[in-house]
Design the sequence.
């Protein structure tokens, strides 16, 4: 069993808890709140409730996004034979994390998690344990710094970049504004991965919102406001998969992607307001 947790702070200088600002809402903790977790603070709950006032089914969206992640990992491990996963925007660990799903299918699976929230780092060592045959590692880094991720020694120790890798960007891209060019970030990450690798991604959308709300979301995205969810339309989401081969059923609501075994009836696309897709690098 291998499990590695890394922070770039010099030993003995900064503990993860020292970087946690409980007065400001953070996406990972807000998501944890919507999922019914306990690793959140008053600011996260207030922010989550405010967003739920504008989008009352947001908890359904969070749960369905999580189920999409689990189904995508299972499909990649079982049907595509993927044994390596790079999961960026991990969020606070909960039940059925990427390595748990993958290692249930193939115990030798190796998973690297990446997140920039210190509360995720604080939980990683206790919760991100691996099977004896596989390995997990956690890197404290930001999606917008792909070079740091790709050249991090723990990634290189855990994942063989000459073999196929599943790049998991689930509910993270909408936190990268257009001003930070999320498409270039995804292209850079995929460029380092060999043919036969996969991209699995989900993204919140304004396609099902009232026109005036959708325009506000588009304006926020164009303005590059950090901390604002940059909702994007279907065509903008599809661009992340340029040059890749989408697997069936293509781009759909996360509630519908290979969800035949999920409880029926499924939530509507409007209730979830999030697209998902998986594609193969040729």
Sequence:
């Amino acid at each position: 069993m291998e499990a590695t947790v890394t922070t770039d702070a010099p030993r003995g200088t900064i503990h993860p808890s020292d970087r946690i600002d409980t007065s400001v809402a953070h996406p990972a903790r807000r998501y944890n709140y919507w999922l019914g977790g306990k690793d959140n603070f008053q600011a996260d709950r207030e922010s989550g409730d405010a967003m739920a006032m504008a989008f009352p089914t947001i908890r359904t969206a969070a749960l369905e996004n999580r189920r999409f992640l689990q189904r995508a990992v299972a499909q990649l491990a079982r049907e595509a034979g993927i044994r390596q996963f790079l999961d960026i925007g991990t969020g606070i660990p909960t039940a059925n994390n990427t390595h748990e799903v993958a290692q249930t299918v193939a115990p030798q699976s190796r998973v690297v998690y990446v997140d920039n929230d210190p509360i995720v780092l604080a939980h990683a060592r206790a919760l991100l344990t691996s099977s004896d045959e596989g390995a997990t590692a956690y890197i404290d880094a930001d999606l917008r710094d792909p070079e740091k991720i790709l050249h991090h020694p723990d990634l290189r120790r855990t994942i063989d970049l000459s073999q196929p890798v599943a790049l998991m960007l689930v509910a993270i891209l909408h936190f990268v504004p257009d001003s930070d060019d999320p498409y270039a970030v995804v292209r850079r990450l995929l460029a380092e991965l060999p043919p036969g690798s996969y991209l699995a991604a989900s993204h919140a959308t304004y396609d099902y919102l009232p026109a005036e709300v959708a325009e506000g979301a588009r304006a926020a995205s164009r303005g590059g406001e950090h901390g604002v969810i940059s909702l994007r339309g279907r065509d903008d989401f599809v661009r992340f998969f340029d040059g890749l081969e989408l697997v069936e059923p293509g781009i759909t609501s996360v509630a519908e992607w290979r969800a035949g075994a999920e409880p029926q009836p499924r939530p509507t696309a409007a209730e979830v307001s999030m697209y998902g897709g998986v594609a193969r690098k040729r």
Observations:
- Residues 2-281 form a domain with the Rossmann fold fold (CATH 3.40.50.150).
- Residues 9-17 have pLDDT under 50 and may be disordered.
